[in-house]
């Protein structure tokens, strides 16, 4: 039996529909090199991109995932980790990204707002410890002020 630990997240990643990394944060030494991380991501993508499930046991890890248009969102924990906690983190992650991108969750919008997405990941999890599981709180902390939005992208109400 494993001792309870706050360190529940091993990795958070977003891959495109070709399995290429758009964002990935690893929180322990399970995959110490970038080469090993990318190999894991490629294998994980190959295993999950056609599957309809939301959870998979892969290489001794519990992986929960969600896909949307051309993006795949992954949260990875140990094999002993509670799947409900991982699923809750994934849902908070996805919902906060959806709010940040104004429901336009696709590769181009994500790349245009990558700074806010990285901030959201940092608000969600730090060093493998879940800090926040409420998407509204994450979005408030990351909040993009109107001054930060280019004038051409603002609506009439924002101007």
Automatic annotation (TrEMBL):
Domain AP complex mu/sigma subunit: 9-147
CDD domains, per database record: Zeta-COP
Residues spanning the membrane: none
InterPro entries assigned: AP_mu_sigma_su, Coatomer_zeta, Longin-like_dom_sf
GO cellular component terms listed in the entry, alphabetical order: COPI vesicle coat; Golgi membrane
Membrane topology: Peripheral membrane protein
Any GO BP: intracellular protein transport
Function: The coatomer is a cytosolic protein complex that binds to dilysine motifs and reversibly associates with Golgi non-clathrin-coated vesicles, which further mediate biosynthetic protein transport from the ER, via the Golgi up to the trans Golgi network. Coatomer complex is required for budding from Golgi membranes, and is essential for the retrograde Golgi-to-ER transport of dilysine-tagged proteins. The zeta subunit may be involved in regulating the coat assembly and, hence, the rate of biosynthetic protein transport due to its association-dissociation properties with the coatomer complex.
PANTHER family registered for this protein in UniProt: COATOMER SUBUNIT ZETA (PTHR11043:SF0), ZETA-COAT PROTEIN (PTHR11043)
Quaternary state and interactors: Oligomeric complex that consists of at least the alpha, beta, beta', gamma, delta, epsilon and zeta subunits.
Protein name per the record: Coatomer subunit zeta
Gene source species: Lymnaea stagnalis (Great pond snail)
